[in-house]
Amino acid sequence: MADIPVKKYRLRRARKWLQQKLTPFAVRAGRVASLWNKPDRKKFPPRSLADVPGLARYEYSWLSQNGEDGILRYLFDEIGFESRWFVEFGFGASQCNALRLILKEDFHGLLMDGSKDNVDYFRYAANRHGCDRVTAKQVFITRDNLQTMIEGAGVPREIDFLSIDVDGNDYWFWQLLDCVSPRVVCIEYNAGIGPDLSLTVPYDASFERFAKHPSGFYYGASLAALEKLGIEKGYYLIGCDSTGTNAFFLRDDIHIDGVTALTAREAYRPHANWLQRGISEAEQLEFMQSMPYEEV
Q1: Can you tell me the mean pLDDT for 76-83?
Q2: Helical H runs in the chain?
């Protein structure tokens, strides 16, 4: 068995708690509001990436964690907007896939996260920026409350964008979700499982990634599992970001010239962060296969 390093999760949480106690809320939230003032990229896509294949050609991060801002900008430049509504669950107030759509494209929508801080920071920053089109709710999402929360927020069935990143039950939530029909879906996948195995964590209403295993390796679903689920739900896989974090899907009735359905093996990108930490793809897979994933 590969020796997988673990993150000092409890120590990190303790440091965060201490920082919150020592720093006034208005200061912490003000930093988030200030980040929203960053200038967005004007020249898009950059000529320097003209020869880069796939979605990676369009990647850049304004207020997203990786290159999602650029990928989404490209996709909506091609397909246009219809409802200008989104749903995103699992978000950060300063790193969020929908933030550019909210601040630059006048989207309405619903943000949900289990962190009170994330929700409070977002509300503070949104108020500072005069943004009243988005509802942010603190909630630990389960199968029992997901659709009720969305329907209760007045979200229409036809939405432009859905983003799922909960570090756990992602597969099960997308499988369940039928109260909205997004045109574009972004969902996190677990690249450590590789491109071929169709696996997910078993559903657990109280799933918490680092509590399950301090390495953080045990979470989510493989790309192959999400590809299969997407097909069942009427979506086709079009690619992944270059860090091996997110997969992007289009609804079957949405088409872009030159963008075709890909298999999980064709779209797969390995987990860049784990590779940088010296953990090979083979070592990642060996560890994943020792954990109680469920075949789907």
Answers
A1: 98
A2: 9-22, 25-35, 68-79, 99-105, 116-128, 146-152, 170-176, 209-212, 223-233, 264-267, 272-276, 281-289
